[in-house]
Design brief:
The chain is mainly alpha-helical and 180 residues long. It contains eight helices and no strands. It is 81% helix and 0% strand. Keywords: Sigma factor, Transcription, Transcription regulation.
């Protein structure tokens, strides 16, 4: 049985058998790290494989100390980078949701009275309510809302989309319960 130092030396020489042994030695512990930073097994596996490639690619930069700590740091940094990439993608999805949901939401809202609308607005989470009121009721644009609430313009757009979606769900539930 090879020691950890011998396995690392073999990896630095590019030996596939040493890489396989290193993988076997750390795969379970590092997969656990990946799972903690993601919401699905699929994402965790992506991060896991990407991080192991980085370990093998940069193993020459390991110069001593806790090897497991060095490996773990690569896995954590890879997971954090994945989160940032995913968050940017999620924000892009939010913008497309705004364009798709705006017309149908306004049609639903136009069918109810002002008092009914205000009662529904009061059910919203605070962030949704503020942005919805400023945009729909007060007529502010997203830049003005961002400045007033000290949030990004994109956050204002996202909160409005979520507020409209929230209203839609409540209205659909009411229509279903009235039909029953």
């Amino acid at each position: 049985m090879l020691s950890e130092e011998e396995i690392i030396a073999g990896c630095k020489e590019g030996k596939a058998s040493s890489q396989e042994k290193l993988y076997q030695l750390y795969s379970r512990r590092m997969m656990a790290v990946c799972v903690r930073y993601t919401s699905s097994r699929f994402e965790a596996e992506d991060i896991f494989h990407e991080a192991f490639v980085k370990v093998f690619k940069h193993i020459d930069s390991y110069s001593g100390g806790s090897f497991e700590g060095w490996v773990r740091r690569i896995f954590v940094n890879t997971a954090i980078n994945h989160y940032h990439k995913n968050r940017k993608y999620q924000e892009q999805l939010d913008y497309s949701t705004i364009e798709e949901s705006t017309p149908s939401t306004e049609d639903i809202i136009s069918q109810i009275s002002g008092q009914e609308l205000q009662a529904l607005i009061n059910l919203m989470p605070e962030g949704y309510k503020l942005v919805f009121n400023l945009y729909v009721v007060e007529g502010y644009n997203h830049r003005e809302i961002g400045e007033a609430l000290n949030i990004a313009e994109g956050t204002s757009k996202s909160q409005l989309a979520k507020a409209k979606s929230f209203l839609k769900k409540i209205l659909l539930k009411q229509q279903i319960s009235e039909a029953c």
